[in-house]
## 1
Amino acid sequence: MPNPRKIDLQYLKGVGPKRAELLRKELGVATFHDLMTYYPFRYIDRSTIHHVTDINDDMPYIQLRGRFVSFGTNGEGAKLRLNALFADETGTIEMVWFNRARQVARQLHTGREYIVFGKPTEYRGHYNIVHPEVEEYSPQSQAPSQGHGLVGVYSLTERLITAHVTQRVIQRMIATLMDTEAARSLPNIMPASLMASRRLLPRAQAVRAMHMPRDVAELQQAQFTMKYEELFLLELNILRYMSNRGRKVGGHIFSRVGEHFNTFYREVLPYDLTGAQKRVLREMRADMGSGRQMNRLLQGDVGSGKTVVAFMTALLAVDNGYQACVMAPTEILANQHLETMIPWAERLGLSVALLTGSTRQSERTAIHGRLMDGTLNILVGTHALIEDNVQWARLGLAVIDEQHRFGVAQRAKLWEKAAVPPHVLVMTATPIPRTLAMTVYGDLDVSVIDELPPGRKPVTTVTRTDDQRERVNRFIGSQLREGHQVYIVYPLIEENEKLDLLAVEKGYEMVCDTFPSYRVAMVHGRMKPAEKDHQMELFASGKAHILVATTVIEVGVNVPNASVMVIENAERFGLSQLHQLRGRVGRGADRSYCVLMTRHDLKGSTRHRLDVMTQTTDGFLIAEEDLKLRGPGDLEGTMQSGMALNLKVAKLAQDGQIVQLARDDAERWLNNDPNLTSTEGRRLDHELQLIFNKTHDWSQIS
Ligand code: ADP
Ligand code: MG
C-alpha cells in the first residue's frame, strides 16, 4: 500500500518539483501526508453567490459573479496599484491589487463574466476587495466541491499567491490528492472497538471530508473523528510516558515522618491546617514513600496556604536525611519565602539560606560549601539555584513556586547531575482547568487545595470608569484613614514599555498629589532589583501606605494589611491575571475591595471579562472562562520547549469534553494493553513513534 508519508509532493499530478519546493518552504508541506493533513482553517459555502448590494460588515469571504467595467492604475514601478470596478446586476464594488498589478491587468478583460472570491473590507465609506481571486465564469469551472457547497479555505502565504498558488489551485491539488490510491487506501489507526463506540469515520473518509465535506453533518463527524484521534494519541503518549517514568526512574524513599515534621506540626505551626492542606500533604507523603520520583502539581488559589505545605514537605525531606530547595520566580518572592521560613527553621534548629542573583560572591561560596557538606538543610532562591556550579550533597526535594515562570528545561537542570532525581513539587496559584491538567500538564499528578483558611471574606469587586475617579479616591482615602494599605496597579505591555513606564510614573505623581499625607512606594520592571526590593520592603513593612506598581507584584506578595487593589486599565489584563492581582488583598481579617478602572465604552468580550470578575471569586471558574476567551495561550507556551502539543485539529479551549473522553479511553486501553503489544496496540505504538518521536526527550523532565 502506498505510504503517503513517503511520497514526495512533486509526484502529485499538477505539482512538479518547483511548486513542491515552494510548498515545502512556505508551508512545510513536503509529502502526500503533509498535504493531506494541511486542513482548511475555514469553510465557505461556494454554492452561494452574493450580490454587491447585500455586502455588509460581518461578511467573511464571499463570492460575486459579474463583469469588470473599468480598470485604472495608480503609481508606478513596484508601487503600481490596480483598481478595477466590478459590477453585478445589483451594483458595483472596487477590487484592488497592490501586487502583480500589471499581470493582473493583462489577464482581466471587460465584458467577460467572472467569479470573484474575497473578503470585503470597508475603506472610506465604501466596500472594496483587496487581492480577490478571480476566475472566468463558466458553468463547468466551479470549485472542486461542485455539487456540494462547502469548500475549504487554506492558510496561504503572499509568496504562494504571487506564484499563482491560490486557494483555487490548492483546492484542486487536494482534490487530485484525494483521488490517489494513497488517500483512498489510508488505513485506520484507531482500534475497531473505539471506532464503533465513538462512532468515528474510517480514516480515509474522515480526511477527505475534512477537505471536501459532502455536507455540514459529514464535516462535523470528520472533525470529531480527527480531534478525537489526535487527543487519544496524545493522552496515550502522556499516560504511557508516566507509567514508563514510574518504572524506570527511581525515587528517594522518604519513609519516616520524623522529629522535625512532628515538632513543627505540634509546637510551631501557628494555626490548624485546613482539611485540604492535610489531604495534600498525605498525597505527597504517599508519593515520596513509594520509591518512585514524585512529580506533582499543587494547585491552590492565591492565599490558600501553599507555603506552609511546601515547608512541611521540605521537613519530610530533612527528616529522611535529604536537603530541599524552594525556587521562586522573583527575588522579592524568594525573600518573602525566606522570611516566612526563617523563624520556623530557627525553632526547629534547621538551617535555611537564600541564593539569588544578587547574593554576594563570598556568601555564595559559603553556601556552595554548606550545600556540599550537607550542613545546609533548605535553600531558597531564584534562577540562581540552577546555575551550573550549584551542587548538592543530597538534594531530595525541589519545590518550584509559581511554575509558569520556569521553563521545563530549567527544571531539568536542577537534577541533571543527580543519579536519582529529587522529588518535584510544582506549585501554582493559577488554577489549571481540567483540560490543561490532562494535556499540557498531563504528565504531572495533581493535588488541589480547594479550601481557603477560615475567616477569609471574598473580595468585593467593582468596575469604575475614569470619570468616577474622584469617588474612587475618596474611598481609598477612607481605607487609608482606617489604617489600611492600598495597591494601585498599572498594566505593562511589552511592546511599548516606555509608554507604560510613563503611565506608572504619572500615576505615581498623581497619587502623591492626591494623598499628600501618606507615603507612596513604587515598583516597576525597569528598576534595579535592589531598588525594587527596597520599595517593596517599604510597603510590606507598612512604612509606605500606597504601592503604585506594574504587574511585578502579580505573583505571591503577602501584605495582609492591604485592603484595596485598584487596577488601572483593567480591560488590558487577562482574567487570570486580574484574579492573581485581586488575590493580593483579602488576606487579613478585614473586608477588602478590588476596583477595576476602565474606559467607559467597553465592548462585548471585554465587558464580559470584567463582569466575570465582579460576579465570582472562584479561581477555577475564572480560569475556565479565561481559557474559553483567550485560549490556552501562555500556559500552552510554557511547555513548548519540553512537550510540544502541536495540535492540528483539536482546540483545548473548546474541546474539553473530547479531551476527557480521549483520556478515559486511553487509560482504559492501557489497562488492557499496557505495552501496546496487541495487534491494534502495535499500530497505535507505531503512530506514536511517528508523531512524538521527533520531539525532545522529556523523560528526565518533571
Ligand atoms: P499562597 O497559597 O497564595 O502561597 P500563602 O502560603 O502565602 O498562600 O498563605 C496565605 C496566608 O494564609 C498566609 O498569611 C498564611 O500564614 C496563612 N495561612 C496558611 N494556611 C493557613 C491556615 N491553615 N490557617 C490560617 N491561616 C493560614
Ligand atoms: Mg505563594
## 2
Amino acid sequence: MDGPDDAAVWKLDDERALVATTDFFTPVVDTPYEYGAIAAANSLSDIYAMGGTPFLALNIAALPPDLPVEIASEILRGGAEKCKEAGVVVAGGHTVQDKEPKFGLVALGFVHPQKMLTKGAVRAGDVLVLTKPLGFGVTTTALKRDLVDEADVNEVIGWMSRLNKTGGQLANEFNLRAATDITGFGLLGHGWEMAKASGVGFHLYFERMPFISCARKYAEQWTFPGGSSDNRLFYGTHVNFASGISEMEQMLLFDAQTSGGLLLAVPPEKLAEFERRAQELAQPVWAIGEAVAETGIQVAA
Ligand code: CO
Ligand code: CO
C-alpha cells in the first residue's frame, strides 16, 4: 500500500505472482456493444500495465430495471468478445439495479515476479514511450453533447477498445521495469505519479505528442470533461510549460482518458530495437520525452 500501483500483486511462488484489479464506469459511447468492449479493455489494461497476462475475469454490472434486455446483452457481449480476444475467460459476475448503467470487470492475471512493471522503476535517461494517442476525454465529452462527427466517433472507439496487450508483450520481451497506463488522471497526472514514485523528473516535448485527428477541433470548443480540469488543478503545480504552448494544448495533456495507452520507460540503448519490434507487431509507439535526474515535469514546445 505504500507504493500505489496499477493493480494488486500477490506472490505465489518464485515463478508466479497473481495480479488482481477491478474497474467499471458509466457509458462513454452511445453504442452498447462498444461500451462493453471499451470497459473490458480498460479493466484488463491495469494487468498489462503491471507486466501481467490476464486469464480470468468476472463481470460487474449495474443496470436500470427498465433497460431493454437487448441493450444489456450487447454490453455484456462487447465485454465478453474483448475478453476472448485477450485470451481471458469470463467466469460469471454480479449484476445489481441502478439508475445509470455501469459496467466493468474484476480481472486476474499472472506475472513472473522478476518481470513485474511498476510506476517506481523509471531511471534517469529512460525514454518515455506512449502506445496510444491522446484526446479521448475531450472527444467523448463532445459526443455526450451531440457535437461529434461519425468518423470521429469511430476513430476514438477504435483506440479506446484496443487492448494494451501488445504494449505489455513489448515490455516483457525487452525486460522493461517501469510502466503505467494512461486513464483518468491523464498523461500528466499518471506521468507525475510515475516520476514521483521513481524519484526522477520528466522532460516531455509537445511537438512529439500523438493526438487523435479530431482532438484539437473539440479542444477548441472546450469540451473537456470535468476530470481534465481537476487534473490541471491537482497536477498543474508539478508541471512547467514552455511559453508558446497554449492553454488549450496544456489541457490536452491533462485530458482524462478512458482506456488510454501504456506509458513505458525504455532504456535508450534498447529504443531502436524496441521501435523496430513494435512496428513488426503493428503496435504504434511514440517516444514523447525522457526521464531526468531533477524532479518535476517540464514540457518543451
Ligand atoms: Co492504471
Ligand atoms: Co484502474
